[in-house]
Amino acid sequence: MSSSARAKRAAAEDRLDLVFHALSDRTRRDLLARLAVGPAMVTELAAPFAMSRIAVSKHLKVLERARLVVRAIDGRVHRCSLAAAAPQDVERWLGHYRAFWHDTLGALARYVERDEKNGRE
Amino acid sequence: MSSSARAKRAAAEDRLDLVFHALSDRTRRDLLARLAVGPAMVTELAAPFAMSRIAVSKHLKVLERARLVVRAIDGRVHRCSLAAAAPQDVERWLGHYRAFWHDTLGALARYVERDEKNGRE
DNA sequence: GCAATATGAAACCATTTGGTTTCCTATAAT
DNA sequence: ATTATAGGAAACCAAATGGTTTCATATTGC
User: Cβ of residue B43 near strand C, that is under 7 Å?
Assistant: First the structure.
């Protein structure tokens, strides 16, 4: 149980790595913005950018790994769309800091405390 | 005006790059968590980690560049603390996606629209 | 069947990243 | 004055990033 909890925690950390890294690139944020308007295929997504289609394709893969984007393959067309579900772990993580920034300190301190108990490393 | 608006926007984008990148590393997130408990000097911050002080120092520099952490030099001691102010741009950015994920689509579409008008690129 | 299209795979390249170790410089403390 | 302490700087290294180009593979349209 403690071991599975640790495993789950490690996975959540990985997800945070993936999501934050995915968001740290302007091109990828632009792709998300475009996808927010509606689904699109890869070529369509790549068109507005001053870089090769392959480069955009790689960015899409990063977004997919972070599970921010999903892809439905239909014949030769790959239709990409924003993942419907919010990244809960990210929201949760940021929530603690928002609490800190807004009402100064309490919530995050509690978070860290809980964290220690939960057998971090 | 439109040129200065563009410049400001580019700066905001850079900030997003910096902040998201800073958050994409587990060590750095752990540092933030530690700092949320209270200010600390570099050696103190480095102690719990299985890496050199210099490595932690570099991570701190990344957090500083993203303006998530500030440093007050007092004699030979560098006292680091969480930046008091929330990264507004980040909050704003995420806010739009939160809106999308929660009430599906509307807010983000509006965001993108406004974005186009505001002379992106 | 054949040409055009949508896409990925592989190999490559320069730069950045996350680490290290080995110095060097201030400031304290005794 | 000497020694211990807090810290950065520089040089280095392996691995990951963000690009590229070239080639390969399905699918679709005629």
Answer: no
Q: Give the span between the Cα atoms of B80 and B72, in whole angstroms.
A: 6
**Do A57 and A95 belong together in one domain?**
no
Residues B37 and B96 in one domain: no
Dihedral (C-alpha) A99, A114, B28, A96: value to the nearest 10 degrees? -10
- 10-residue averages of pLDDT along chain A (121 residues): 60 80 93 91 97 98 94 96 72 65 41 40 34
Beta strands in chain B (DSSP E): 40-41, 69-74, 77-82
* Residue B78: predicted pLDDT: 97
Q: For residue B2, what is the DSSP state?
A: H
Consecutive 10-residue averages of pLDDT for chain B (121 residues): 60 79 93 91 97 98 94 96 71 65 41 39 34
**Residue B26 and residue B69 in one domain:** yes
Task: Give residue for tokens 């030099």.
Answer: B73
By 3-state DSSP, what share of chain A in percent is helix, strand and coil, each rounded to 5? 65, 10, 20
In a shared domain, residues B53 and B36: yes
Q: State the nucleotide closest to A24 in CA–C1' terms.
A: D17
Chosen for mutation from B101, B111, B114 (greatest number of chain A CBs closer than 10 Å) is: B101
Q: Do residues B44 and B7 lie in contact, with contact meaning Cβ atoms separated by under 8 Å?
A: no
